[in-house]
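Both lines are quoted verbatim for reference:

——
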Amino acid sequence: MKKIAFVSIAIIMGLTFAVISVSFAEKKAGESIFEYKKELSLTDKQEKNLRDILAKLQNYLTDKQKELNGLRAELSKMIAESADLDKIKAKLNDIAEIQVDASYEDIVSNRAIETELTGTQLSKWRGMQAEFRKNLQQAQGAASKTKEIKK
């Protein structure tokens, strides 16, 4: 039973890490838009609106992260105490719901950002994001290879 609990916690933490990693990458890419203000020809008004959108998203994600931390702590305690499986499943569903909501809010924010940009700006920005993701994947691939070598 303890082995199952450990495996369950490991899976949950792994999934959580994946969601946080993706969110971090998207957040980092989103924040970097201001580094390209000149290249994108952003107006001051566009910059203000984009900052407002991202600030709202960041506040939302911060609140949800606090909620997730509390739910994960409760889940760990429930698993350690061999709580009823239906209650554990309900807690997992609560965690999943927050993760889905956070992903949805990220998409909503991205769409709001897209509406602030002109067609030309959006095309340039998407190209920059694609390059960022490509570089991120290459860095992650290199890190994975380094871990494999160390084993």
Observations:
- The chain is about 90% helix and 0% strand.
